Amino acid sequence: MKVVAISQRIDDYPDRHERRDGLDQKLCRFLTECGFFPLPVPNGLVSKSEVKNEYYSKELIAWLMTFNLDGIFLSGGNNIGSCPDRDNTEKIIIDFASQRQLPVLGICRGMQMLATIDGANLKKTNGHIRTRHILQGGTITGEVNSFHNMCIEVCPQNYHVLANSEDGEIEAIRHKELQWEGWMWHPEREDHFDVRDINRLRNLFCKISS
Question: Which residues contact 187 (CB under 8 A, 6 or more apart)?
């Protein structure tokens, strides 16, 4: 079974003096349904240099290199900027994937992370929380769920748009050269996983152009 590293959200519990990494159990089930073994990436392996005030990643890179990874999955949760340790963990993971030509899928926040690293800006949006959209004007079609209040302003220069929502917001992007995609919906939050999402992820992570 192919191994896919999956980023995790961070939840703060100040009364317990804890910061916890977490994943929706359904997201792991979605990946196993697609035929992949989910490997959660810890957020605590990126350290901050007191001298240069920069983040470094020896421990995280060593952790990633321990496994023979077949892909990277950037999960949802946490707005970008709210958890710098998660932001920097994902930046390092994305750079790792780029250097090794690994396929990547980012969902919701994960798509936003891919876009902002490529220079895109985010903006607030209305009518995209706890609702559904019909995808329009692109390669991916059908109905999707929506659980976000931020979206990307314009498509990053190294990507092209795969789908928009009815109100014109970008719902999916694909890198022009790498096997990287971003989806603003949550495939794991469907009562029954959509065959469209399963097949698209299988194709992406098996390095088959779709």
Answer: 30, 107, 193, 194, 197, 198, 201
